[in-house]
Amino acid sequence: MLLTISTTHRPATDLGYLLAKHPGRLQRFETSAGPAYVGYPRADDERCTVALVLDVDPVGLARGRNIAEDFTLGQYVNDRPYAASSLLSVALGKVFRSALGGRSKDRPELTGTPLPLEVRVPVLRGTPELCERLFAPLGWAVEAKPLPLDPDRPEWGDAPYADLTLTGELTLSAALSHLYVLLPVLDNAKHYWISTDEVDKLVRAGAGWLATHPARDLITRRYLKRKGSLVHEAKARLAEEIESLVDDGAHVLDEDAELPVAAEQKTPLAARRREAILAVLKEKGAVKVADLGCGGGALLLDLFADHAFREILGADVSTRALEIAERRLKLERRGDLERERITLVQTALTYTDDRLKGFDAAVLMEVVEHVDPPRLPALAHAVFGHAAPSTVVMTTPNAEYNVRYEGMADGAVRHHDHRFEWDRAAFAAWCAEQGARYGYDVAITGIGDEDGEVGSPTQMAVFSKGAAA
Questions:
Q1: Which of 77-86, 118-127, 225-234, 384-393 has the highest mean pLDDT?
Q2: SS3 string of the chain?
Q3: CATH number of 2-192, picked from 3.60.15.10, 2.60.40.3250, 3.30.1610.20, 3.30.465.10
Q4: What pLDDT shows up at residue 255?
Q5: 216-223 vs 228-247: helix axis angle to the nearest 10?
Q6: Given this model, what pLDDT does residue 258 score?
Q7: CATH homologous superfamily for the domain 256-465
Q8: pTM of this prediction?
Q9: What is the pLDDT of residues 234-291, one digit of tens each?
Q10: What is the pLDDT of residues 60-77, one digit of tens each?
Q11: Domain locations along the chain
Q12: Which residues of 236-266 are buried (b: 16+ CB within 10 A; e: fewer)?
């Protein structure tokens, strides 16, 4: 049973310090399933790869009756020694305990720094579709290849296993927590007795991401082996986490709260963005509007307050964000006619979704910078090609303006989840390319106080149907 983690961070051998495992020697650790070994197939300044190998003792597992299979000889004939499962998750938690907890004696400054990571699990239970559903919302690029039942007999089809590769820029502790929780979820057959301790373990390991995951309920059910009382307890505790985030107010819902203070402004930049977007929608005569990537619902509140907008859709990949939006809108207190004006849906904007079609206008307010650049063509196709509203309004930070924020380091981005930030020329070029491809005219303006040298803090593009495709 094998798992590898690689990085190209410079120097890449910092990975050894973060894991507290020396690249120069092979180390052995005892686990309940058998010995686990940690070694480094490669360790130099350019690339470092650590391998965790779990040598499962099948006889010991059978004696312990820790395997639940649905056929008579399942205790003795099974895939436990070969396919990644809760056994590997337990080994990972024991061997990399300090890194999983975000601690490093030798490199404490790197524990909170996103690193370029590649994770490989050559054999695990689960379909490519399930791997994508579980890992993609967490910021991973997912490559999951189905494994054949027999390479020499392709007509037999695929086995219920996949070869999984994850790539992304995440902190090492976040990456380990994702694996620690989701490997047993993919396997869906924990090897040990499930008790209330497992709820604590799940909530603790999933802190900061599980409550917001769009497949949260699926993860909770499979992790807890569908034990009804434990699943109910876990959902309640995750709901409390969401509740605490709601109580934090603007610090949760408004990215600009994280920014250093620029020049004094009478109106916050977030409010000025919404004012500018509403002005465009009014000018275009839009009455059916989709807020794509609606987050906690700040723009939805403004749209809902204006009865000129007769049909409103809020869409987001995060169920947590949608729950916050629903609470802010106070939909449970509205009358039937009011509630019928607005719909909230969970969806990923990098996939086509027929529910997003049929609107006069769509808004992407501070959304595009949260998408990994390789996924931008998919977003453009889903919004401009498939949903294809008459008007699309898009806002995004102007990277050139960042130098005007006091205390903001060179090259930094405005929010920890931004995958990139465009300067004005790059934004204009991308918008022109999409306009030409999908048949939109494009007009670009700035939002916020304009600086003669670096422009405005926010840049806005208005796409209008009419150009030749």
A1: 384-393
A2: CEEEEEECCCCCCHHHHHHCCCCCCCEEEEECCEEEEEEEEEECCCCEEEEEEECCCHHHHHHHCCCCCCCHHHHCCCCCCCCECHHHHHHHHHHCHHHHCCCCCCCHHHCCCCEEEEEEEEEEECCHHHHHHHHHHHCCEEEEEEEECCCCCHHHCEEEEEEEEEEEEECHHHHHHHHHHHHHHHHCCCCCCCCHHHHHHHHHHCCCCHHHCCCHHHHHHHHCCCCHHHHHHHHHHHHHHHHHHHHCCHHHHCHHHHCCCCCCCCCCHHHHHHHHHHHHHHHHCCCEEEEECCCCCHHHHHHHHCCCCCEEEEEECCHHHHHHHHHHHCHHHCCHHHHHCEEEEECCCCCCCHHHCCCCEEEEECCHHHCCHHHHHHHHHHHHHHHCCCEEEEEEECHHHHHHCCCCCCCCCCCCCCCCCCCHHHHHHHHHHHHHHHCEEEEEEEECCCECCCECCEEEEEEEECCCC
A3: 3.30.1610.20
A4: 55
A5: 140
A6: 44
A7: Vaccinia Virus protein VP39 (3.40.50.150)
A8: 0.56
A9: 888 777 665 554 444 333 344 554 454 444 345 678 889 999 999 999 999 999 999 9
A10: 665 554 544 444 444 555
A11: 2-192, 193-247, 256-465
A12: eebeebbeebbeeeeebbbbbeebeebeeee
Mean pLDDT of 380-390: 96
pLDDT, position 249: 37
* pLDDT (0 to 100) of residue 229: 82
